[in-house]
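This protein record is not my work; I was only asked to verify it. Would you go through it and say whether the fold makes sense for this chain? Here is the record exactly as it was handed to me.
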Amino acid sequence: MRFVGKTRGEKSPLVSTRDGGISPPPCFRSRDGGDEHSNGFKKFPFTFWTAGTDTVQHHLNQATNKHNQKKNLILNHEMVTEDSDIISQGEVESTLQSSQPQPKIQTFPSIGRQSSIYSLTLDEFQHGREKSPPSRVETCGDFSSLVLPAKKGGDFSPPRIHSRKNNILSPSNLDSFVLACGASSSATDANDRNWIPDTEFLNSPEKTTSANAQSQDPSLPSNVPYMRARIFKSESTYKFSISPKERHLIRLHFYPSFYNNMNCFDAFFSVTVGGFTLLNNFSASITAQALTQAYIVREFELIPVKSGALSLTFIPSTSYEGSFAFVNGIEIISMPKIFQPAPFVGFSDISINAECYTMQTMYRLNVGGQFIPGTNDSGLVRTWYDDSPYLFGAAFGVTSKASKNVSIEYPSTVSKYIAPVDVYTTARTMGPNQTVNLNFNLTWVFQIDINFTYLVRFHFCEYQMSKVNQRVFNIFINNQTAYPAADVIAWAGGEGVPVYKDFAIHVDDQSGDDQLWIALHPNVTYHPEYYNAILNGLEIFKVNDTKGNLAGPNPVPSPTPKPPENRPFSPSKSSNHGRVVGVVLGTVAGFGLLVAGIAFFSCGRKKVVEVTSCTRSWLPLYGSSRSSGTKTSKSSGSNRFTSSGGGLCRHFSLDEIKLGTNNFDDSGVIGVGGFGKVYKGYIDGGTVVAIKRANPSSEQGVHEFQTEINLLSKLRHCHLVSLIGACDEDNEMILVYDYMANGTLREHLYKNSKSCLSWKQRLDICIGAARGLHYLHTGAKHTIIHRDVKSTNILLDENWVAKVSDFGLSRTGPTVNETHVSTVVKGSFGYLDPEYFRRQKLTEKSDVYSFGVVLFEVLCSRPALNPSLSKEQVSLAEWALLNHQRGTLEAIIDPHIKGQITPDCFKNFSEIAVKCLSDNGVHRPSMGAVLWNLEYSLQFQNNPNGPEVVAEQKANDAYNMHTTLLTIEEEDEVCEERDEHSANAVFSQIVNPQGR
């Protein structure tokens, strides 16, 4: 090894070691605290290893900590590339030079002479020359520092060191191109960051145009670079001369507006770089509209470009006449090696070397903390966002911040470029109640593009615990165990020490799922002191596919119904009926944003886009919300409503709820359930609603709150209860529904306070409920299993139309490749599927069984369970089956309707009810078959001499309109004849919560 300087000096190789390292000659080796050199300095052992930086740091720290008693001066340095054969020989060349623009005469400690350039050879020091050697090379993650012993009071400027030890750049000499596209001169943004014109980097600038935006959105963070754009009507390329073996960060900024009367809705284009497709058929306007963003930023991490010339190409689409490309800003920045091989989730022996792939940043979150702007990042100008919009479920945890006496100390394995200190000083944990923690996961849900591999990076820093096994938890990604027993203290070695863990997972389209689920759960195997989990930061990167593609489809902007004046979050109100209709938009609720676009360009032609180009989308990494739809405003720290679909229905303030319920007056209570109390309330000056208020002590109710919003904000059907809105202020969890006039089905079957239903009415109600359940099973995007079908969860409006309600226990059913969902048994006694109870395997046939009990409940007018009766009669299901076997079923029919049922109707109705109660699910009919038979029974009832011959297809047509996921407009047309309700339509909720 040699140090190369500008002054004369001899070169002397170091002594090789057996383990592949190198060491100084013997006089520099220290034992038992080291020997004193004649000049009074400790003889510092320093050994360079050819292993990774972790090993280097470990051994160097061990050797130097007890010697490093004097003040040290850390010298930043820049890493440059060296051939691998030299590195393998353990050679490291270092050039020490002054970091000042002009050389400055400095007096180095113990040198005794002045020098502008410091040079050292080991021979010189070995023979007693008056120069102090470097004490150690301190490796900080991917960046390194050379530490020199400095005499107290010593005054010299840190030199810049060029070392060929690693292929890493320091911030002192990065490739940095920050371009204001279309600008004629340099300008600074709101953060005093300088943006330069892009003209000199274009191959043919004369083939492009530049223009100012004709309007400025108030949410733009700065005029620069967004108020001017470079426009391309043909393929155009930027050329950049860059370091050939470094990764680079690329950011593209888009502000879709009007430029020289050119409408950005006409802009469809692709962007490529170094053989990779970053964007394909991209529309910034559609993306901004769908995501309610004023501007869009896409960030990519590019692998090294060997030629040293980076070509960034914009290609307007040829599929649309008049299409063009545009860009407002471009950033290209050298980045350090911050990626290591990441294990593939589900494959213990497979990992992905992220350094070999180009990636797109999908999400970057400061978990439990606030927004961190790029100016506060640790050198790479990254933006870190709040995690609360992505939280799923009622168990949203608690946030915390490290106390001022906690010092965050980056270890050798974690460079400060991994994440800024602010990320590690805040966290989200599960909360103080360990019993509750064991029953829930801390979960985040993210919208992603299918058929890609994703790198997920977890950032941890423990500042509440100080010992191993105090907090141990499991990490899950898409329901797979990524890490079974995470212990941050064990990883880091102490509190206040940042660590991170990377995992890779592939998301295909077999399940049709375009979401990435991240969940943490306490580990009970290791019996930790606290059943809890913690997370400080989270990043999700999309990895290029085998074709070098990173482009995902454009999102689908859905039309937003026009809100009434002066009530931006109020549901629409019919001038004819005055009935409140809950505006529900069919999109993923976990992101708390209005996927429905706001047409912020009032003129200009919209281009019809191919269906293949417009599917799902994700909340962009950068961009400010154009409206409050992205993040629902609230007055408390709670995020349950926002994270689970609150942006898709009305957000009520707590003051509105208190006013509508007379401050939760108990005289207005109309029902009590597992969730809490249900009040009759009023909104908007007199519209009657049902207001469900959670009981804080009910943990199941908390979960139900989340599930109901998540499901009902995605579902829209005539025979499902409508959710109007919710409130989550001041730790209150409140749901607001249409308030249905005739209460529950149960109240009209065997309660004396309600009128008795005719058989024809009962049959119509059963058909309506079957339609609702059939829609859940087949009409939604995924099969939804209600899991709590019973007569109290079938509600009746003033026209006796049945609506299925109470989705608190509902679950998404098995996928095409699955037969069941394994889950803890939940439901109501008397209605519970015995096969589900025995095997804990849930399918839609469990709902069929429960509905069979309801059918007999309708026929016999008695409860599903009646302990006051004899043993064989306690269970209605068993009693009905027994009488059917005996041929005495007619004997248990409700006397009020016994003479109303035609024989053929009774036979058909009872046969389908019996089939629903089959012990094995495979022998039960589907809900579609149940519906068909009920409608057929109705024909027998309406035509005592026999129904008209109806082909099966025609019968299916009667309900197939309910099996498709309809748009709001289509659904309103289907339901038009059912929607003739008055403003006083009343809702009635759960009355008997027992058995849940």
Observations:
- The first strand starts at residue 15 and ends at 16.
- The first helix runs from residue 53 to 64.
